[in-house]
Amino acid sequence: MEVLWLLPLLVVPILFWTSTTFVFYFKKCFYVAYMMLLAMISIPMCIVKSGGRDIENMRIIRFMVRHVKYFLGLRFEISGWEHLQTGGPYVIISNHQSSIDVLGMMEVLPDRCTTIAKKELLWAGTVGMVCWLGGIVFINRKKTSDAKSVMTDTAKIMLHDKIRLWVFPEGTRNQKGDILPFKKGAFHLAVQAQAPIIPIVFSSYSNFYLRKEKEFKSGTITLKILPKIETKGLTSEDVSSLCDRSYDVMRSVFLEISGQTSQSNGPSNH
Ligand SMILES: CCCCCCCCCCCCCC(=O)SCCNC(=O)CCNC(=O)[C@H](O)C(C)(C)COP(=O)(O)OP(=O)(O)OC[C@H]1O[C@@H](n2cnc3c(N)ncnc32)[C@H](O)[C@@H]1OP(=O)(O)O
Ligand SMILES: CCCCCCCC/C=C\CCCCCCCC(=O)OC[C@@H](O)COP(=O)(O)O
């Protein structure tokens, strides 16, 4: 009789085995809940180590997040490490498909590097709090002038405090199998700080993560770190061409590592 109590315990493995939709929701809920938990553990660690908001806390966050990929069945294949072996400040730009990008980001995140995020993330419970402790710069995307001035201030801080910044120049997540046209903030920032840009491309998640079809399988993500693009001597006049150049390089690499042809009709940046 007592063994009947075990039956509900079998439901989860059976659903795992039979329903891809169940796996999808299970993995997504697990991801959010587990990141919340990791953030909760990280908060006191950050406070003890640095006493408050400090970019050095990104080391703790990076360390805490690195194993999450195993639970989700994800693998990273990373190339181009040599391009990150550069001293001083720089701006990393990468494409943005999902919140899972955080896992790839933490695989390669250099020391003294933080990121720019939408201010709504600040309200994401413990995750928001740990982002604040890690020195993440929050911008209000609905108020462009505010966002621009925050980014201009950030360029100064970058030079003064010798920090690196990771920006998602698409400005939003996108899973259209292509890269959205870039916004200009990251490029203004790099030119204002006269710091090089290092592009990093994530391959398409469409072979394992399908939002519409509700599938979240195991998979491998290719991360390609590209050679730096210098901005020394450039002015705000050059921002548009710098932005277009970066977009073209990243889009062709994205299509190449995602197994698509470069002739596909994606959004144009022009
Ligand atoms: C343990 C638990 C751990 C948890 C993990 C934590 C990790 C968390 C990771 C979190 C990851 C979270 C990830 C996230 O949250 S991603 C979302 C947030 N990030 C971004 O949005 C970044 C990218 N956005 C931009 O760059 C935009 O440009 C902004 C927002 C700044 C403006 O937007 P807008 O839509 O308006 O764009 P526009 O580019 O067409 O610009 C319009 C005009 O302004 C000019 N302009 C632009 N900028 C500057 C400037 N600085 N100085 C002078 N001028 C400037 C520009 O040239 C243009 O003029 P013109 O050229 O047409 O004449
Ligand atoms: C109690 C509050 C509950 C809030 C729940 C949200 C918590 C999120 C928790 C765990 C996920 C961990 C990774 C967090 C960082 C990912 C941030 C992210 O990817 O933001 C999206 C933003 O780039 C673009 O947003 P839009 O596509 O423009 O929108």
UniProtKB/TrEMBL annotation:
Record key words, sorted: Acyltransferase, Lipid biosynthesis, Lipid metabolism, Membrane, Phospholipid biosynthesis, Phospholipid metabolism, Transferase, Transmembrane, Transmembrane helix
Query: Record's PANTHER family?
Result: 1-ACYL-SN-GLYCEROL-3-PHOSPHATE ACYLTRANSFERASE
The segment(s) forming the Phospholipid/glycerol acyltransferase domain are 90-205
Kindly state one GO CC term assigned in the UniProt record. endoplasmic reticulum
Can you name one GO molecular function term for this protein? 1-acylglycerol-3-phosphate O-acyltransferase activity
Q: Regarding domains, what does the record say? A: The HXXXXD motif is essential for acyltransferase activity and may constitute the binding site for the phosphate moiety of the glycerol-3-phosphate.
Pathway terms, separated by semicolons: Phospholipid metabolism; CDP-diacylglycerol biosynthesis; CDP-diacylglycerol from sn-glycerol 3-phosphate: step 2/3
Under Pfam families, the record lists: Acyltransferase
The answer to keyword Transmembrane applying to this record is yes
Q: What does this protein do?
A: Converts 1-acyl-sn-glycerol-3-phosphate (lysophosphatidic acid or LPA) into 1,2-diacyl-sn-glycerol-3-phosphate (phosphatidic acid or PA) by incorporating an acyl moiety at the sn-2 position of the glycerol backbone.
> What does the entry give for GO biological process?
phosphatidic acid biosynthetic process
EC number(s) reported in the record: 2.3.1.51
- Catalysis: reaction(s): 1-tetradecanoyl-sn-glycerol 3-phosphate + (9Z)-octadecenoyl-CoA = 1-tetradecanoyl-2-(9Z)-octadecenoyl-sn-glycero-3-phosphate + CoA; 1-(9Z-octadecenoyl)-sn-glycero-3-phosphate + (9Z,12Z)-octadecadienoyl-CoA = 1-(9Z)-octadecenoyl-2-(9Z,12Z)-octadecadienoyl-sn-glycero-3-phosphate + CoA; heptadecanoyl-CoA + 1-(9Z-octadecenoyl)-sn-glycero-3-phosphate = 1-(9Z)-octadecenoyl-2-heptadecanoyl-sn-glycero-3-phosphate + CoA; 1-(6Z,9Z,12Z-octadecatrienoyl)-sn-glycero-3-phosphate + (9Z)-octadecenoyl-CoA = (6Z,9Z,12Z)-octadecatrienoyl-2-(9Z)-octadecenoyl-sn-glycero-3-phosphate + CoA
Q: Which residues cross the membrane?
A: 7-26, 32-52, 121-139
Name of the protein in its database record: 1-acyl-sn-glycerol-3-phosphate acyltransferase
UniProt family annotation: Belongs to the 1-acyl-sn-glycerol-3-phosphate acyltransferase family.
